[in-house]
Each structure stands twice: as C-alpha cells, then as structure tokens.
Amino acid sequence: MENIKLSDKSVKQALRDLSLKGGPVFIGQPDLRKIVPYSRDQVVTRDFVRRPVFFLCAEKRPDGIDNQQHREMISFMPIMDTLVSEALEARGCIKFYDPSQDFLLAREDDRFAFYGERGRGICQSLLKHVPVIPMDLTEYQPQPR
Predict the structure, then answer these.
(1) In a domain, 26, yes or no
(2) Rounded to 5 degrees, what are φ and ψ at 112?
(3) In a domain, 28, yes or no
C-alpha cells in the first residue's frame, strides 16, 4: 500500500474507489463544542482489551511529586523495559492497575507485575478471585546493553 497523504483529493478518490457518494467536510474548532455523546453511559471495554493484560501495580507515590510525575517516573524505570518486552512477546498490553476497578478486568492468564510489598499484597488478594500470573519484579536485575 502506498503512503498517501490524507487530503481532500485522496478522500474523494477513496470514496470513488468504493463507489460511495460524498466528499470530505472539514470539522474544526468551532464545531468541537457541538460534538457530544448521545448518552453519558460508560462504554464497557473489558471484552475488547488485548490479552494477556500485564497489570503493573505501582507502589505509593512519594511525597512531593504529583500523579503525572509519578507515572512518568515509573514509565522510565528499568523494570518497565522488562514489562514492555514481555507484553510485546505475548502480544498483550500493559495497564497500570487500579484496585477500585481492574479486578473486574482481570482474567485468567493475565499477568500482575509488582515491585514492592503493597503490590505483593494486592496480587495475593486478587489471586483469591482470579488466577492471574504474578510477576515479582523486586528481584529484577537489568541486563547490560
């Protein structure tokens, strides 16, 4: 397939190729406030998540940094390289574990990665209900590059 830029011309050509009538219409800044959902119902996505899910349970956020900084800090930790490699190899996905909701998302054969006592406790609690595969990253040793 060619790399074709998305433009009025390419959209018109694609519609013609599909024997569809119509054309491109620009939707811009003035239109955005008019684009709203029909309902405020929550979309249930748990059946459409790429499996296995590699849940990562973060430890308590250190004082002095906000949630965004904490998430970024974890994303750049060497243990995240291990998690990303494992998820790629398994063709799964990674999700920061939310104890208030994700117990409903967890399925058999999902992974539960942790690197501290808080995560270990949450994993043990989850295992009473869902047979996830624990990944204890506390013994993680980065491989030389």
Answers:
(1) no
(2) -130, 105
(3) no
Distance in angstroms (rounded) separating the CA atoms of residues 85 and 135: 13
Write out the two tokens for 55: 């849940």
- Which tokens hold the place of 103? 């117990």
Structure tokens at 137: 């990253």
Hey, how many other C-beta atoms are within 10 angstroms of the C-beta on 82? 18
Q: Please, are residues 50 and 56 in contact by the beta-carbon 8 Å criterion?
A: no
The pLDDT assigned to 26 comes to 81
108-125: pLDDT as tens digits: 999 999 999 999 999 999
What single-letter DSSP state applies at residue 48? G
Give the range of the structural domain holding residue 104, as residue numbers without chain letter: 51-136
Q: 40-79, pLDDT tens digit by residue?
A: 888 788 788 999 999 999 888 888 999 889 989 988 888 8
For the full predicted model, state whether its pTM sits above 0.85.
Answer: no
Task: Name the domain count of the chain.
Answer: 1
Distances (CA, A) of 108 to 95, 112, 119, 129, 132: 16, 11, 18, 10, 5
